[in-house]
């Protein structure tokens, strides 16, 4: 003999039918019990939904979150050491600042970010959220990420030194026997090359090229003095304005990202070579920067 198992719904229906056949006070009590049970189930479901949502938001995100990072004056110090050190030649001080700019990145190898933070960044102005695979190779370890970033920075400094010394010779600077070291903590990648090069030239020349102003910029630099595109330029302009810059030297190859996104109070200048950048720097310092080329659509 087989007994049929009643479903939960059938049990509720029979309870409702029994309640309807019962005397008035009993029917009222049964209805209240039924409503209480339904309310309990709904609250339990809501609680579970909240807990599952909280768990999902706390899990590591497959996205990289970027925001404006710190800036540094390449004519100054970092952690108590000059960012650019020159031996074998006279060097000169400048009253202004030449600031390299950076992007803070979370969600890269070694720096995980939660889904909650990624959601907040997606809603917050001044941040970008990008699929991680578009930022670094899938499976890259934290050690590999750091090594690659440091190698890019070292290569950038070497190329900036080569290009800057060659350019300084065109300005009449004797560079025989000159040795250069560049140092900055916790910053990697190649995008500061142009600012390193400008900083070295500034140090080797008696003129105060900045004219006492704070000028920021970004762009890679190769041995031949060509300025290349970089990532995160919109965020870098925000960081430059935040730290007091009024002028921003931008690679011409990044102009499509610059147009329409320059913060109020910051003037962009497009450059494609070290010569462009140095001439712009001198013009700005002399108060003749109004005619320098903007990025245009």
TrEMBL record:
Active-site residues annotated for this sequence: 191, 236
Domain Lon proteolytic residues, every copy: 186-284
Coiled-coil stretches noted in the UniProt entry, renumbered to this chain: none
Enzyme class at the top of the EC tree: hydrolase
Catalytic activity field: Hydrolysis of proteins in presence of ATP
Any one GO molecular-function label of the UniProt entry: serine-type endopeptidase activity
EC numbers for this chain: 3.4.21.53
UniProt xrefs under InterPro entries: Lon_proteolytic (IPR008269), Lon_Prtase (IPR027065), Ribosomal_Su5_D2-typ_SF (IPR020568), Ribsml_uS5_D2-typ_fold_subgr (IPR014721)
Keyword Heme among record annotations: no
Keywords in alphabetical order: Hydrolase, Protease, Serine protease
Disordered as annotated region, ranges: 1-26
Pfam families: Lon_C
Key word Protease present: yes
GO BP annotations, alphabetical order: protein catabolic process; proteolysis
Family: Belongs to the peptidase S16 family.
PANTHER family xref list: ATP DEPENDENT LON PROTEASE FAMILY MEMBER (PTHR10046)
Name by which UniProt lists this protein: endopeptidase La
């Amino acid at each position: 003999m087989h007994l049929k198992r009643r479903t939960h719904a059938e049990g509720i229906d029979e309870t409702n039918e029994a309640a309807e056949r019962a005397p008035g006070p009993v029917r009222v009590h049964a209805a209240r019990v039924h409503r209480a049970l339904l309310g309990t189930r709904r609250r339990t479901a809501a609680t579970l939904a909240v807990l599952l949502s909280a768990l999902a938001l706390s899990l590591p995100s497959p996205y990289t979150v970027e925001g404006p990072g710190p800036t540094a004056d390449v004519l100054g110090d970092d952690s108590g050491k000059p960012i650019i050190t020159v031996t074998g030649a006279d060097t000169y001080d400048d009253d202004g600042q030449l600031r390299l700019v950076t992007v803070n990145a979370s969600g890269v190898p070694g720096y995980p970010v939660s889904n909650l933070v990624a959601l907040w960044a997606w809603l917050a102005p001044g941040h970008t959220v990008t699929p991680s695979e578009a930022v670094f190779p899938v499976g890259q370890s934290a050690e590999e990420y750091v090594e690659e970033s440091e190698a890019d920075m070292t290569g950038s400094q070497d190329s900036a030194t080569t290009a800057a010394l060659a350019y300084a010779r065109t300005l009449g600077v004797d560079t025989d026997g000159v040795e250069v070291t560049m140092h900055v903590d916790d910053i990697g990648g190649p995008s500061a090359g142009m600012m390193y090069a400008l900083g070295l030239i500034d140090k080797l020349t008696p003129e105060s090229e900045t004219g006492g102003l704070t000028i920021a910029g970004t762009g890679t630099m190769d041995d031949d003095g060509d300025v290349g595109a970089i990532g995160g330029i919109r965020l870098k302009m925000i960081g430059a304005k935040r730290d007091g810059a009024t002028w921003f030297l931008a690679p011409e190859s990044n102009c499509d990202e610059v147009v329409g996104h320059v913060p109020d109070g910051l003037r962009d200048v497009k450059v494609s070579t070290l010569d462009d950048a140095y001439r712009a720097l001198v013009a700005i310092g002399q108060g003749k920067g109004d005619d320098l080329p903007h990025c245009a659509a």
